[in-house]
């Protein structure tokens, strides 16, 4: 094992004295516990940490959230609803939570790794349901039955035939002149609402239903309608619900849901400035077309993307904490007869976890900065850019989370296949986040189409020297290289779009999309790097700053490796840089390896949660002794 000695320079030296994470003799170096505390402060919203994360962290550490073996899928779903009500018991004001983006995202970060079903239900009830009601003159409604959870809220938008093209949905709400209300109807099999949690599990439910408003057979566009689905006796007349087969990950009561000429009162329509219906059936709107009205109606999906990102982010950090702890506790045969050494002694093991750790820190800092942008933007001109950034970040974070949890599962071997060790279900739950609130590939394709000509790459930081005079340890240089990659792919996408077949829009985009998606990928990573570097500068301790910068260095180096050919061709790198890249990465890994426990301790998982995960503890073998004795 190695101990890390932090020098006053940017470099970090490695010695063979002592054990991992021991305090060095450098006066600027922090003890591991203190360093973890400083990292935790940076990762979890600094001075706002307890308000944003405190309630949720304490809650998931309680016995109610412990692993429950032997439950059927329906019992597990019911447990998720019970936990949702427990969450609600610590929420002073559900409406305020809905508008508190940091705290609402924080709920998903902590709920995701203990109960993926709860993460899904919370996002639907608080964000999509209550949020949509509040966004549409919600102050005029009595929401007490929903905020108290006497009734659970759900959101019905996606249809069997209309997912990412949901703007083409077919469910209709026909204005009924005789009563002033609406007739909600599912006209075709393909118009059935797909996958909402509309079963009787969890108690009485109401839904916000996206439907096409028809006034005298004229299509006015898609609006939302508050629709009761069930009571304590069962589903209401005209509401047809059929359970779907169980999917991967934690069970949720997904169903197909249809409406057979269900009458709704006039106040069922959710109205705001983008769409109001007079008593005589005349629609007034401050937006000029049906598509814009639809996007405004379902604008809660943007916050939903932040929630999905947060949930998978928490899952990735939990998996890493368990895997890194296990790598220190699990001992294997060493090079000498009778010697036992920890898994983490092997570069082939700890390097993969360190790459994942670098990504997890980058994901966290990116999410924090994106939430800040989302909260601070009140200018309509900037909102489109921020919504695109939210979508890009959601795609990158959820894809990275899947890779991280899969890596952690493999690094823990067969032990991680057992649900009690709390890793096996995480990749499946993350798959849901990848698809929910806009399929990752689709929202990235949309972002690419907007960014080919509508985006200027921020290519320069503080460094102005020519590449030949810069080092691979120079963070500004590495950051600028990643921006250069983004610009290279943007240039290729522009050329492809200009030179694509005329008169063939699909053909032109097919020629462009590959380069466009590479541009978006580089953009996401560059945004993450900028957030990472900003966070490192905000630490109050020089030693922690150097540790964070070295982790950021690893993040940048690993993501630049696949682009060295382009960078060499564009004369942004030299041949000497390319030849030395592997060695540079290896050196950084060696310097970071002794600090792996500090880096995961900073994720601040509750002690109660970790104590119940066998492989997260050095006495994990004790969990098997009883069976061996019997």
Word description of this protein:
The chain is of the alpha+beta class and about 625 residues long. Helix content is about 50%, strand content about 10%. The chain has 21 helices and 17 strands. Strands 3, 4, 5, 7, 8 and 13 form a six-stranded mixed beta sheet that branches. A three-stranded antiparallel beta sheet has the order 6-12-11, with no helix packed on it. The chain has a two-stranded antiparallel sheet with strand order 1-2.
Summarize this structure as a short list of keywords or feature phrases.
630 residues, alpha+beta, six-stranded mixed β-sheet, three-stranded antiparallel β-sheet, 21 helices, 17 strands, disordered N terminus
Roughly what percent helix? 40-55%
Distance between the termini: 37 Å
Average pLDDT metric: 92
What fraction of the residues are assigned to beta strands by DSSP? 5-15%
Compose a concise summary of this entry.
The chain has about 625 residues and is of the alpha+beta class.
Layout of helices and strands, plus pairs?
Elements: E1 3-6, E2 12-15, H1 32-43, H2 49-60, H3 73-89, H4 94-99, H5 101-112, H6 116-135, H7 144-147, E3 152-156, E4 172-176, E5 181-185, E6 193-197, E7 205-215, E8 218-228, E9 230-231, E10 234-235, E11 239-243, E12 254-259, E13 262-264, E14 276-277, E15 283-284, H8 290-297, H9 300-329, E16 331-333, E17 340-342, H10 347-376, H11 380-411, H12 426-435, H13 440-454, H14 475-499, H15 505-537, H16 542-560, H17 564-569, H18 575-592, H19 596-601, H20 607-611, H21 622-629
Parallel strand pairs: 3-7, 4-7
Antiparallel strand pairs: 1-2, 4-5, 5-13, 6-12, 7-8, 9-10, 11-12, 14-15, 16-17
């Amino acid at each position: 094992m190695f101990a890390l000695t932090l020098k006053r320079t940017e470099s970090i030296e490695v010695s063979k004295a002592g054990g991992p994470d021991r305090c060095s003799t450098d006066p600027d170096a922090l003890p591991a516990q203190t360093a973890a505390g400083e990292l935790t402060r940076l990762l979890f919203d600094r001075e706002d940490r307890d308000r944003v994360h405190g309630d949720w962290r304490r809650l998931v550490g309680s016995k109610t959230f412990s692993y429950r073996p032997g439950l059927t899928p329906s019992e597990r779903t019911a447990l998720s609803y019970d936990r949702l009500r427990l969450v609600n018991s610590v929420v002073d004001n559900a409406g305020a939570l809905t508008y508190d983006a940091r705290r609402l995202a924080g709920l998903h970060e902590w709920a995701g790794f203990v109960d993926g079903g709860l993460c899904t239900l919370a996002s639907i009830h608080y964000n999509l349901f209550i949020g949509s009601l509040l966004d549409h003159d919600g102050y005029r409604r009595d929401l007490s039955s929903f905020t108290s959870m006497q009734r659970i809220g759900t959101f019905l938008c996606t249809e069997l035939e209309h997912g990412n093209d949901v703007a083409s949905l077919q469910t209709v709400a026909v204005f009924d002149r005789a009563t002033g209300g609406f007739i909600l109807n599912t006209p075709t099999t393909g118009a059935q609402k797909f996958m909402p949690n509309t079963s009787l599990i969890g108690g009485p439910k109401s839904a916000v239903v996206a439907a096409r408003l028809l006034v005298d057979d004229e299509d006015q566009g898609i609006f939302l309608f508050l629709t009761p689905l069930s009571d304590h006796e069962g589903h209401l007349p005209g509401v047809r619900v059929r359970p779907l087969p169980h999917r991967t990950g934690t069970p949720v009561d997904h169903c197909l849901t249809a409406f057979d000429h269900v009458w709704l009162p006039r106040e069922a329509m959710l109205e705001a400035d983008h769409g109001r219906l007079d008593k005589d059936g005349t629609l007034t709107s401050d937006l000029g077309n049906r598509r814009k009205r639809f996007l405004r109606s379902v604008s809660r999906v943007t916050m939903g993307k932040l929630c999905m990102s947060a949930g998978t982010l928490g899952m990735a950090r939990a998996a890493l904490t368990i895997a890194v702890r296990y790598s220190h506790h699990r001992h294997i045969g060493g090079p000498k007869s009778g010697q036992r050494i920890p898994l983490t002694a092997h570069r082939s093991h700890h390097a993969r976890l360190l790459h994942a750790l670098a990504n997890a820190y980058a994901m966290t800092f990116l999410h924090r900065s994106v939430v800040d942008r989302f909260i601070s933007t009140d200018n309509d001109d900037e909102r489109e850019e921020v919504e695109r950034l939210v979508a890009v970040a959601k795609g990158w974070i959820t894809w990275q989370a899947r890779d991280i949890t899969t890596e952690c599962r493999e690094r823990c071997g067969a032990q991680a296949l057992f649900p009690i060790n709390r890793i096996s279900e995480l990749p499946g739950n993350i798959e849901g986040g990848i698809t929910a609130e806009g399929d990752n590939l689709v929202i990235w394709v949309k972002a690419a189409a907007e960014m080919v000509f509508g985006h200027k790459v921020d290519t320069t930081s503080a460094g102005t020297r020519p590449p030949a005079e810069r080092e691979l340890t120079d963070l500004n240089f590495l950051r600028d290289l990643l921006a250069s990659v983004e610009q290279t792919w943007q240039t290729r996408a522009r050329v492809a779009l200009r030179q694509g077949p005329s008169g063939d829009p699909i053909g032109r985009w097919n020629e462009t999309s590959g380069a466009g998606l590479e541009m978006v990928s580089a953009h996401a990573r560059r945004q993450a790097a900028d957030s990472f570097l900003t966070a490192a500068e905000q630490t109050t301790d020089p030693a922690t700053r150097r540790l964070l910068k070295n982790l950021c260095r690893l993040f940048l180096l690993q993501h630049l490796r696949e682009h060295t050919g382009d960078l060499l061709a564009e004369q942004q790198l030299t041949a000497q840089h390319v030849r030395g890249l592997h060695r540079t990465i290896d050196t950084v890994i060696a310097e970071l390896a002794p600090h792996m426990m500090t880096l995961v301790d900073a994720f601040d998982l509750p002690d109660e949660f970790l104590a119940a995960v066998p492989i997260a503890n050095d006495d994990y073998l004790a969990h098997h002794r009883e069976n061996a004795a019997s």
